[in-house]
Structure formats: C-alpha cells, structure tokens
C-alpha cells in the first residue's frame, strides 16, 4: 500500500472504497481492527465468540457502505463501535446472559443493563447513549416523554409519576414501557446508538 493512501482520513478512505479502490477498506480495517476486536473480547470474554462478532461487525460495515446508507461524516469508528456493541447485546440476549429488568418502580433500566469492567470505550459509548437518548426523547409522544423525563432526569418513582401526571401506577409503567420500545425503534430508524 502506498504511504500517501495510508495517510488519508477515514472519510477519504471510505470515498476511495466507494469508488472501487478496495485497498482503502483494508487500510480502514487495519487502522481499527485491534480496537474493535479488543472491545468485543473485553466484554464477551470468549475468543471464538469475539471472532464471530468481529466478523459480523465488519460484514455489516461493508454491507452498509456497499448499500450507500453510510452518512456519518468524521464518526466512522464510533459507528463501527456502535455496530459491535449492538451485536454484543444481541449475543447476550440470545445466550440468555442478559440481565432481566424487574418491573418495579425502584428499578433503573440503565443500571441493570450496564456491563461491568469499566473502560474508556464504555465511557464513550455511555456518553453517546445519553446524547442520543436526549435527542430521541424529543420525538416521543408527550405522555411518554413526560414519564421518561420524570423517571430518569427527575429521579421520581412510579408512584410520584402517577400522582404528577394524574394516572394510575400501571398506566405510568405502561407509558414507560412503550417509551422504551419507541426509543429503541427510533434509534434503529435514525441509526443511533443506545445501550438499554
């Protein structure tokens, strides 16, 4: 590979790949493979599964680039890490290792689903989640938006939320449940990373 090609930015490499220069993708892969693989392995703790998830991650990257759906300027590695993280979550769900979220007023969904072994990547992902959730909350129906804001930002329990919104506790819980379903749906539609 030419030295000049290796010095290109991620966006320039993506453009080169989209124009048919497949060596550009090889450079992107070599630039980030250890970071992405290390992140996956640090969470799943299983080399074979990490290999599978790593391959699936870059399969999705290639598929998205080839389909023309990639539009994240200057955020290539964040996008790749989001894909890897979502595949890790899928793995935990399929294998039954995902924590169960109790349906109790004192349960914090984000805390329950948080994976141990803090590191820099997880801190970045968590910050990205908070930013994305704030954007997506604005798109929720008003009743659901209010419950989410009272619960996660106001730290209200569901009894307080029910009293403030003039509904039963079951209705407040239902609105929260539908809000989470809608947030996940919106995240997929807008290709945003959220980890709950």
What order do the helices and strands come in, and which of them pair?
Blueprint: H1 3-6, H2 10-18, H3 23-44, H4 47-67, H5 76-95, H6 109-113, H7 120-137, H8 142-153, H9 158-165, H10 169-189
Q: What does this protein look like?
A:
- With 196 residues, the chain is mainly α.
- The protein folds into 2 domains: 3-95, RNA polymerase sigma factor, region 2, helix turn helix motif (Rna Polymerase Sigma Factor, Chain: A, Orthogonal Bundle); 109-189, Winged helix-like DNA-binding domain superfamily/Winged helix DNA-binding domain (Arc Repressor Mutant, subunit A), CATH 1.10.10.
- It is 71% helix and 0% strand.
- The protein is built from 10 helices and no strands.
- The protein has helices at 3-6, 10-18, 23-44, 47-67, 76-95, 109-113, 120-137, 142-153, 158-165, 169-189.
- The longest helix is centred in the first third of the chain and has 22 residues, at 23-44.
- It is elongated, with a radius of gyration of 20 Å.
- The mean pLDDT is 80.
Structural class: mainly alpha
Q: Helix count?
A: 10
Mean pLDDT: 80
Annotation, overall tally of beta strands: 0
Main beta sheet: none
- Portion of residues in beta strands equals under 5%
Q: According to CATH, what is the class of the largest domain?
A: Mainly Alpha
Compute the number of structural domains.
2
- What is the radius of gyration? 20 Å
The CATH architecture of the largest domain is Orthogonal Bundle
Q: Gap between N and C termini, in Å?
A: 41 Å
Helix content: over 70%
Order of helices and strands: HHHHHHHHHH
The gross shape turns out to be elongated
């Amino acid at each position: 590979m030419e030295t000049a090609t290796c010095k290109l930015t991620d966006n320039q490499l993506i453009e080169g790949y989209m124009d048919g220069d497949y060596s550009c993708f090889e450079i992107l892969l070599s630039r980030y493979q250890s970071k992405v693989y290390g992140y996956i392995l640090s969470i799943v703790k299983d080399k074979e599964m990490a290999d599978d998830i790593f391959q699936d991650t870059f399969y999705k990257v290639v598929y998205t680039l080839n389909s023309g759906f990639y539009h994240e300027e200057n955020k290539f590695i964040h996008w790749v890490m989001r894909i890897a993280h979502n595949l890790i979550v899928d793995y935990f769900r399929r294998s039954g290792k995902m924590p169960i979220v109790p349906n109790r007023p004192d349960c914090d969904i984000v805390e329950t689903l948080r994976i141990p072994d803090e590191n820099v990547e997880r801190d970045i992902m968590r910050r990205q989640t908070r930013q994305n959730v704030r954007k997506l909350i604005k798109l929720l129906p008003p009743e659901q938006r209010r419950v989410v804001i009272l619960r996660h930002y106001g730290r209200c329990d569901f009894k307080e939320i029910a009293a403030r919104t003039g509904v039963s506790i079951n209705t407040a819980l239902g609105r929260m449940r539908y809000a989470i379903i809608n947030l996940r749906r919106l995240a997929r539609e807008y290709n945003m990373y959220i980890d709950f």
